[in-house]
Write a structure and sequence with these properties.
There is one protein chain. The protein is an all-alpha fold and 90 residues long. The chain has 2 domains: 1-35; 36-90, no CATH class. It is built from 4 helices and no strands.
Length: 90
């Protein structure tokens, strides 16, 4: 067990750590948010793999439509994430 002075010193260190590096303190407490799934890179990889297949099966017009739909989906995901986090200009 810690004596009172050591306990106060430890509490002071914990408060200082929480004030100077809240992310690290949250990770140590186990309350840090989980990392997000890398949705945008996965969408880009799926789009990269899907376009040649669509192009071979259905032609260049379908490939262009796939590219535009994929980019629109990626843009929507980006806007939703930006709105959820709050943009710096707001």
């Amino acid at each position: 067990m810690l004596d009172d002075q050591d306990r106060r010193t430890l509490e002071s260190l914990e408060r200082h750590l929480a004030a100077t590096d809240p992310g690290f303190a949250a990770r140590m407490r186990g309350t840090a948010p989980r990392p997000r799934f890398p949705l945008l890179p996965v969408l880009l990889l799926v789009l990269f793999a899907l376009v040649p297949i669509v192009s071979l099966l259905f032609g260049p017009a379908a490939a262009l439509t796939t590219i535009l739909a994929g980019l629109a989906g990626i843009g929507i995901v980006g806007l939703v994430r930006r709105r959820r986090l709050g943009s710096p200009g707001d």
